[in-house]
Amino acid sequence: QAKSAGRNTMRFFDPTLQAIANAFIAFELDLRQGLERQEFELHYQIQVDDAGVNTGVEALLRWRRGGKEMVPPAQFIPIAEANGLILPLGQWVLETACAQLMRWAEEPGRAHWTMAVNVSALQLAQSDFVERVGRALGKTGANPALLKLELTESMLVGDIEDVVAKMKAIKAYGVAFSLDDFGTGYSSLSILKRLPLQQLKIDQSFVRDILIDPNDAVIARTIVALAHNLDLRVIAEGVESAEQRDFLAGIGCDAFQGYFFGRPIAAGELPKD
Ligand code: C2E
Ligand code: MG
Ligand code: MG
Ligand code: MG
User: Fold this and answer.
1) Which atom of ligand 1 sits closest to the CA of residue 201?
2) Ligand 1 within 6 A of 153 CB?
3) What's the pLDDT at 210?
4) For the chain, what percent of residues have pLDDT higher than 90?
5) pLDDT tens for residues 221-269?
6) Ligand 3 centroid to residue 201 C-alpha, Å
7) What is the ipTM of this complex?
8) Which ligand is nearest to the CA of 95?
């Protein structure tokens, strides 16, 4: 029987393990089909500058599994990275975000908005990643100067020369880079100064308790000072209250993102300017 079961099956004697294996296989299968069935959407979360002006959004991927329940990215992105689906999925994100930028180009209130797109380590490692970014821009006609790619510190290990070369080539298009979840990884200062970055993003884990935990406040101050000394801008993510915003503004943070300003939402629900 085990022989005739074919691919996409695993055989266990323990019925509990069998159920877990079956659920995992079903999840992976649904994930693969989700792209063809157009079950993915982008939501957008507003980014605000220190004058309170909306300057752009971050695109955040959403999966409506089987057209029904929403699966959070934390649950499916690691699996998409493990099975390689993140490559076509990431390209879809890039092109969909650029197409959205192009639609906003015609709207006076939103024509200046920037679009931040999360990039996976696997995408960046592709030998043709530079061309892929160029293709997304060319296909949609989006203004490269409004596109910002979010990398994480975990991508800065391994072949750093390759990363720097690709970043420089993409920067030559006019595209900017932001270092996401900053402070949670291990990036060395010597690597940081070599990267053509435009922005550091203070991780939300430091913002959460910034008003009550002196350590978090010190870390945030240090990141702002570091960013400004390297001639980078700094944005804080996970800002949920006016008090957090005021504190971050007080230590020199240039921009903010979080539920206080707006949750990630469908494009149609975003403010008009
Ligand atoms: P991230 O890039 O650091 O995105 C910020 C996450 O924080 C988002 O979670 C966002 O919804 C959430 N968030 C925003 N404001 C607040 C706030 O005020 N409080 C709290 N508690 N959370 C806030 P989300 O959308 O679940 O995404 C989680 C992660 O999944 C992202 O973290 C990013 O690493 C990854 N991700 C999302 N979309 C993509 C994508 O298109 N490609 C890739 N490669 N990764 C993605
Ligand atoms: Mg991000
Ligand atoms: Mg982040
Ligand atoms: Mg984060």
Assistant:
1) 3
2) no
3) 98
4) 88
5) 999 999 999 999 999 999 999 999 999 999 999 999 999 999 999 999 9
6) 7
7) 0.98
8) 1
Tell me if 152 CB under 6 Å of ligand 1. Answer: no
SS (H, E, C) the chain: CCCCCCCCCCCCCCHHHHHHHHHHHHHHHHHHHHHHCCCEEEEEEEEEECCCCEEEEEEEEEEEHHHCCEECHHHHHHHHHHHCCHHHHHHHHHHHHHHHHHHHCCCCCCCCCEEEEECCHHHHHCCCHHHHHHHHHHHHCCCHHHEEEEEEHHHHCCCHHHHHHHHHHHHHHCCEEEEEEECCCCCCHHHHCCCCCCEEEECHHHHCCCCCCHHHHHHHHHHHHHHHHCCCEEEECCCCCHHHHHHHHHCCCCEECCCCCCCCECHHHCCCC
